[in-house]
Amino acid sequence: MSKSILVIDDEPVVVEISKRKLEETGFEVQVAHNGNEAFSALKKKKADLIFLDVQMPDMNGYTFIMEKDRIPEYVNIPIVVLTAYNETEPLFKRHGIKAYLLKPLKLQDLVNKAVEILGRP
């Protein structure tokens, strides 16, 4: 059974190329463009890993983390934060974030981080 990843980012290009690259590697991928869509996706299929953008409309990444951690079945889903802002690392580390990747993303870094956390699909 393939490991499932949820990619949450408001930039359609980032979502599409990330999805394609992760699927080529063998992961099952769901996508969302904001935190609200992400919760809808998680209700359909619980993810094994979440890649989360910080700056998004409707519900930003930080708010998503706080809301996710209030739902017992989602608490242990690891999150990798995607951000253009290097200085946000300490803030997210306080909330148990596995790692963060700086934007612009290098697709191989995305795949490497997924494999590091979930193992080979």
Per the principal axes of the C-alpha atoms, what is the gross shape? Answer: globular
CATH class: Alpha Beta
What level of helicity do the residues show? 40-55%
Count the strands? 5
CATH architectural label? 3-Layer(aba) Sandwich
Low-confidence stretches: none
Q: Give the end-to-end Cα distance, rounded to a whole number of Å.
A: 8 Å
Element-by-element helix/strand order:
EHEHEHEHEH
- Count the DSSP helices: 5
Mean pLDDT across all residues, rounded?
90
Query: Strand share of the residues?
Result: 15-25%
* Rg from Cα: 13 Å
What does this entry show, briefly?
The chain has helices at residues 12-25, 35-44, 61-68, 89-93, 107-118; strands at 4-8, 28-32, 49-53, 79-83, 99-102. By secondary structure, the protein is an alpha/beta fold.
Characteristic terms for this protein:
5 strands; globular; Rossmann fold; 5-stranded parallel beta sheet; 121 residues; alpha/beta; 5 helices
Question: What report would you give on this structure?
Answer:
The protein is an alpha/beta fold and 121 residues long. The chain has a single domain (4-118), classed as Response regulator (Rossmann fold), CATH 3.40.50.2300. The chain contains five helices and five strands; from the N terminus they run βαβαβαβαβα. It has a five-stranded parallel beta sheet, with helices on both faces. α1 packs across α5. The N and C termini lie close together (8 Å). The model has no long low-confidence stretch (mean pLDDT 90).
